[in-house]
């Protein structure tokens, strides 16, 4: 853990003064001599970077931090009517105002120190230009190396050291010295991990203020340091730890044109959407686009042409998802579509986190280390946990995008916030109402069954109607069956109950192993997921952990206790229903929502599916034979 303490200082020339912070003020004066600054006064003792940065913002405006000409300072102290007179007076008589500026800053620092109850001021010490004659500035090679390392990234000091190690780069100068010079040149941003924002502390890395905790810091030696509890899993953010960031440089010049290679044909719905996304990327006036696609629409493939458009313009592309499984599974498909590009993959299990590539796949947590890097961000499963409702991840993904960059949201179940942004015109909407195979979505049936309940002693009662649905699926449709339940407890109880019941009528003496159950606390959940996908057993009882990322060729879906709308909201019900009928070989399936009552979420989920089917039919996105039967043409 690398802490940094800084001094506040003021440096001046014959024409201007400048207020700044540095861990090594003599280095700053050496650098500023190139701009005519000849003297410096130290304003504070060495204090943590977060405190120093806050104080700098309180005592100096942006112009004073970059270099304030004296004449502007003098004019600022006079009313508009006498400004012209002051200008004329300054032509004939000049009095050095630096002492007044220093006294003014000292007064402000004293008040702030009293308010924060910290000792800030130091013994007044001046540094003359001659005193830094032996101080050396880093070579251009060191500066260039760090510019490349930080390009489009926001990193702590130890993370920068890791990149240098991975890339086998050895600097001639001290790392902090090179970074400070890059900051003085305006090439990088120098940001404290935690600082004050108004009356509150805020983590500059994750953007949150709720998880800031006070601690005695063994790194900076302060008894009243602060750290961010929310950042612990991805690197500790502290008041005394700086972040170094560099916005990505100008777009590169693309050589050979990049084209998409597919060994299959897109559906008409996919082609229309791919064309719309390509146009979106080209349109400078549009920044956000929502692709609302039904489950199984093949939304990944439609993004290929948007990716190609961005890459051909020399841009960088990020494909990001809340789930590790999504980015891992999609990587081979993109490699096949773009054989000339070697994408980078980032998730918690990848050790090398700083690979450079024009195309990056990452989980949302990994975006916290990017800084205005990507021209196009494709956010898959935008409604899924843990991205949904996580302000930290929203902040990280947004900061990873260039200020002029574009974002494409992919989902089958858009959130109310996304739809609000669509309705206000902030986000462009593109819909894919049909699956790639051209068959309509299975429309859920609502079954009110008050006999379905769980007793106080933990026993689950499955009514005869539910058992008949299960029997119909396995022996009638010869299909597998997802049985979704709202809790870990019910997954175990329903699973165990079914394991007993399938050996009795109406079932044909099924073995208990034909029923498996899983949930988030099940250590074998991934193994069971794979076995079910292979068809090793027909009935899988699960919580919502299996609502995404699993495709079974021939399956029905039953949602038990569907009235539990705190768990089974509209989006969740649509996702679970979307497990049925996904494959082209077996595009049909049945879906039942079974509950003690009908909820608004159940009704809305059914309406969503029906509306998508109707839109797909009207747009001619369904199979030709479905139109012949009605005498219409698609």
Number of helices: 21
User: What is the number of E strands?
Assistant: 28
Largest sheet: number of strands, sense, barrel closure: 7 strands, parallel
Strand order of the largest sheet: 16-17-15-18-19-14-20
Proportion of strand residues: 15-25%
Distance between the termini: 63 Å
Apparent shape: elongated
Q: What fraction, in percent, of the residue positions are helical?
A: 25-40%
Organism: Metallumcola ferriviriculae
Protein name: DEAD/DEAH box helicase family protein
Keywords: ATP-binding, DNA-binding, Helicase, Hydrolase, Nucleotide-binding
GO molecular function, one term: ATP binding
Q: What does this 3D model show about the protein?
A:
One of its GO terms (biological process) is double-strand break repair. This is DEAD/DEAH box helicase family protein. Residues 280-432 form the Helicase ATP-binding domain. Keywords: ATP-binding, DNA-binding, Helicase, Hydrolase, Nucleotide-binding. 35% of the residues lie in helices and 22% in strands. It is an alpha/beta fold. Helix 1 (25-32) packs across helix 9 (175-184), helix 7 packs across helix 9 (175-184) and helix 10 packs parallel to helix 12 (304-312). A seven-stranded parallel beta sheet has the order 16-17-15-18-19-14-20, with helices on both faces. Strands 1, 2, 3, 4, 5 and 6 form a six-stranded antiparallel beta sheet that branches. The radius of gyration is 31 Å and the shape is elongated. The longest helix is centred in the N-terminal third of the chain and has 19 residues, at 98-116.
């Amino acid at each position: 853990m690398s802490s940094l303490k800084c001094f506040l200082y003021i440096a001046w020339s014959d024409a201007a003064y400048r207020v700044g912070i540095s861990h090594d003020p003599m280095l700053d004066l050496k650098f500023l001599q190139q701009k005519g600054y000849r003297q410096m006064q130290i304003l504070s003792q060495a204090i943590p970077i977060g405190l120093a940065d806050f104080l700098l913002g309180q005592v100096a405006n942006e112009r004073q931090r970059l270099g304030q000409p004296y004449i502007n300072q003098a004019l600022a102290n006079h009313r508009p009517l006498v400004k012209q007179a002051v200008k004329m007076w300054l032509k004939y008589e000049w009095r050095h105002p630096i002492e007044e500026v220093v006294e003014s800053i000292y007064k402000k620092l004293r008040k702030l120190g009293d308010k924060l109850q910290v000792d800030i001021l130091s013994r007044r010490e001046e540094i003359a230009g001659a005193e830094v004659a032996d101080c050396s500035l880093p070579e251009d090679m060191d500066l260039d190396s760090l510019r490349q390392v930080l390009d489009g990234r926001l990193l702590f000091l130890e993370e920068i050291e890791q990149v240098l190690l991975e890339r086998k780069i050895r600097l001639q100068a001290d790392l902090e010295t090179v970074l400070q010079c890059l900051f003085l040149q305006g090439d990088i941003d120098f940001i404290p991990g935690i600082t004050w924002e108004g009356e509150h502390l805020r983590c500059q890395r994750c953007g949150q203020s709720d998880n800031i905790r006070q601690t005695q810091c063994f790194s900076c030696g302060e008894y009243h340091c602060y750290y961010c509890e929310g950042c612990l899993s991805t690197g500790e953010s502290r008041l005394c730890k700086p972040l170094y960031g560099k916005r990505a440089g100008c777009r590169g010049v693309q050589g050979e044109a990049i084209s998409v290679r597919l060994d299959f044909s897109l559906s008409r719905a996919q082609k229309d959407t791919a064309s719309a996304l390509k146009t979106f990327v080209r349109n400078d006036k549009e920044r956000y686009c929502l692709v609302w696609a039904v489950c199984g629409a093949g939304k990944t493939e439609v993004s290929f042409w948007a990716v190609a458009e961005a890459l051909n313009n020399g841009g960088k592309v990020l494909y990001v998802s809340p789930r590790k499984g999504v980015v891992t599974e999609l990587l081979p498909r993109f490699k096949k579509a773009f054989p000339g590009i070697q994408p980078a993959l980032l998730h918690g299990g990848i050790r090398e986190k700083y690979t450079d590539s024009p195309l990056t796949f990452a989980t949302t947590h990994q975006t916290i280390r990017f800084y205005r890097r990507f021209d196009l961000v494709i956010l898959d499963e935008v409604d899924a946990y843990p991205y949904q409702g996580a302000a930290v991840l929203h902040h990280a993904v947004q900061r990873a995008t260039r200020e002029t960059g574009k974002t494409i949201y992919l989902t089958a179940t858009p959130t109310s916030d996304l739809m609000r942004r669509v309705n206000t015109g902030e986000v462009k909407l593109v819909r894919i109402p049909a699956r790639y195979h051209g068959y309509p979505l299975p429309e859920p049936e609502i079954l009110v069954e008050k006999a379905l309940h769980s007793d106080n002693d933990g026993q689950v009662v499955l009514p005869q109607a539910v058992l008949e649905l299960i029997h119909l699926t396995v022996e009638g449709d010869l299909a597998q069956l997802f049985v979704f339940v709202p809790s870990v407890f019910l997954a175990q109880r329903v699973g165990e109950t079914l394991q007993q019941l399938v050996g009795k009528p109406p079932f044909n003496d099924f073995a208990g192993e034909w029923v498996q159950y899983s949930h988030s606390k099940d250590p074998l959940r991934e193994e069971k997921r794979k076995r079910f996908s292979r068809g090793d057993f027909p009935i899988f009882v699960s919580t919502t952990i299996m609502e995404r990322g699993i495709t079974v060729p021939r399956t029905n879906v039953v949602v038990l206790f569907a009235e539990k709308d705190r768990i089974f909201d509209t989006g969740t019900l649509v996702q679970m229903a979307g497990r049925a009928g996904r494959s082209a070989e077996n595009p049909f399936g049945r879906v039942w929502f079974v509950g003690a009552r009908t909820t608004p979420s159940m009704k809305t989920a059914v309406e969503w599916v029906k509306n998508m089917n109707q839109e797909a039919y009207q747009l001619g996105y369904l199979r030709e034979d479905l139109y012949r039967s009605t005498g219409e043409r698609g």
